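Task: fold both queries, return tokens.
Query 1:
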Amino acid sequence: MREHVLFLFSNREAKVRKDVITKIKNFTDNNRNLDVYYLITQHADHLKELVKEFAYKHGEKGIIFVAGGDGSINEATNVIANLQTNTALGVLPFGTANDFCKLHYNKFNLDYFLNDLSRLKISPVDLLQLTGNMQLIGDGPDTIFNNDLALIKSTYVMNVASIGLDTEILKTAFHYLHKSPWLKGSAYTFAVLKHFFNLQTREYIFSFKNKDHQIDSLLAAFCNGGFYGNGFNPAPGCDLQDNLLNYVIAPKFNHLQFAKLAIHYKNGSIETQKDKLNMGLLNKISVKSADGKPFIGNFDGIIFETEHLQIDVVPKKIPFAFVGDYSQRLITDKSSIID
């Protein structure tokens, strides 16, 4: 067990209850041999600032548990990856959809988590790296109407990147949450229902295995993790340590075909539909629209627009803290365990 442990709550996404803080304080009091504390972000970019400060100070002796959604996890992932530090990253499901956390916790219980903390295992995980001129559009209901967001050239992705229908659904869900925050995860369900009646495809050119494939696509997902979009499961067999990404490219479907696909997409049986989809494993893939015009996509819930996108797997890029048996089942390379 590493000496320094930070529980970092995203104030934007994590409504931190008093009982949660009380449990962490009690854990701290009962483990005086460890330097355990919590912080709550106070402004935009504060999470990145705190991760950088902690990593510089504690390095390989530290663990940061990000308590937030996929967007918060993405921020911490990029800081740690770019610093090339050995500070370990862990995750707690205190965001809206908590899709990456679904991979690690069947039914999250903070008491059980804290009890298992002394038996955690740290092992490096792969990341996706996206490259292209990506104009950010929004990363949540509070930024979706912001027209002055950054243009980025590259980013690391812990969970899933996608283009097409699922990004349109995410964008609509952000609109719903902007107007009605109480909807929480249900906003994604309502967004799916809205787009079900207006299925639109687009011609993309996907380049992989030294060939170009022009496909009239409804959506495409490129996965390091397994879940996105409030529980949809495009990669039930994902492996965070296999140096590969799972990809799913869905062609044009009618409404009935799409409804059947959505059921499999939701319940983790999408691999039974291989004859209807283009899917498999790759270490890299690129995509552009056939008409050369910009298209929208998202990574870890952050929406962007671009004309071209390159996705590469970066093997075992950052140390990750696996807590509990359910999470530790994901360590497929046992020889990579650091501590």
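Query 1 returned. Query 2:
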Amino acid sequence: MKRILLFSKTNQISIVSILVVTGVLFLFIFNKNKTNITEKEVFRIGYTNSPLLSTMYNSKNKLEKNNKIIFEKFSSSADIGYALLSGKIGAGFVEPSKALIAKRFPEFKHIGVVGKITYPYGGILLVRKGLDLKMQNLEGYQIAASDENCRIFQAFKKDLGMIGKDVTKINIQFMPYETMISALESGFVDAALTKSSFGLLSGKLGFTIPYIQWDIAAGDKCCPAVVAQTEYLLLVNKKFRKCSTVLINEMMANEKVPPESLAVTTSFETGISSNQLLTLPPASFSSADMSLLQLFEGHGTLDIKEHESSEDDNERIKMMISLQKATF
């Protein structure tokens, strides 16, 4: 009888041990599967052929040596947004306006903002290929501009006045910034007064730059400070959040790379002359830390309070703020 009792206790101890080990293994497997990443999966990063992604191009050359990281080129950042939503890629560089569209879909709950590409804010006049236009001889030509009350337009108007020229004698066509390049290439307009970041495309498209003005502060209706300098957002599927730190760290390190080196790498990727790229400052990358999010939220609130914006403008700013808060 004693022997049977001892055997029973031993069995009990063995059973408990098996249960504990099984439980540990279950938790391990559960936590591993919770990330939804298998060993066969790779971290796919979507990007476009934009000179604004100079720090990414430099990182791409290093990170592609890792066979678990693949960079995929897309024709537009809208395509990248949809690829993120469908789960075909793990991260991507998406323009803010396209990211706001992506945010409308329920699948965006799996996406977070981890960084942004910014460019110094200013106004620039792009002249289409084949025309020799200067500030002194714009009269009679078709010039695209964003809005009559835009600070870029107001600065342009002031600078014209300083050389004795009247902006009312120029044929101004008001249109969104996003449509100006197409309007120039098609010949619909002869020149475009736009954001300075568009100047990086001038060499590739054959545009000339007779005017540039850096002494302009963003924060009006056409260029809210919350979005004016942000050219791309780095969006990441949350299951790849750990993988994204490798990309973020590399891009942050590239902020110390000389502009000449960035220009050579960007020239190779985009086909734009490195000499042309060096005529303008490169874009910058920063991670979406808490101080950055607070700064954006503050600027968003400032824009809403100080400027008489439409409901659509206010909603766009609020959506941008909530998009930034989606970081994880």
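Both queries returned. Flag for query 2: The chain has a mean pLDDT of 77.
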